[in-house]
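A reminder from the course coordinator: this example appears on the midterm review sheet, so study it carefully.

Given structure:
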């Protein structure tokens, strides 16, 4: 039986969020899973405020939040920031996804 853990956020993702927030540091990064996309589910990653029931992952004053509905889909996942030639973006390495799409935001389970 595999242990189910909440998602992990890399230091690189927290550092990028700190850059985005600048001096204010007030916006949290919300990582959610929604129905849709080319593979059945898609990630919705945006700046937002924590709400009651959200899981809050915090480091250095920066917060990444995940709602209760999305949490099971993100169990054991890693939230990172990728800065490559094709573009810079927050990415989710999700061991629960059985396949993903080339767009990088859509997956199936």
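Designed residues:
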């Amino acid at each position: 039986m595999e242990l189910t853990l909440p998602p992990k956020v890399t230091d690189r993702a927290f550092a990028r969020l700190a850059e985005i927030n600048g001096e204010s540091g007030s916006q949290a990064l919300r990582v959610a899973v929604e129905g849709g996309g080319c593979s059945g589910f898609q990630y919705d990653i945006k700046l937002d405020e924590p709400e009651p029931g959200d899981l809050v992952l915090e480091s250095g004053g920066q917060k990444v939040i995940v709602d209760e509905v999305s949490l099971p889909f993100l169990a054991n996942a890693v939230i990172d920031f990728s800065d490559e030639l094709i573009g810079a973006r927050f990415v989710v390495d999700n061991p629960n996804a059985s396949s993903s799409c080339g767009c990088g935001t859509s997956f199936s389970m």
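Residues 11-21 form the longest helix (11 residues). Strands lie at 8-9, 28-35, 41-48, 55-59, 62-66, 78-84, 87-93, 99-100, 106-108.
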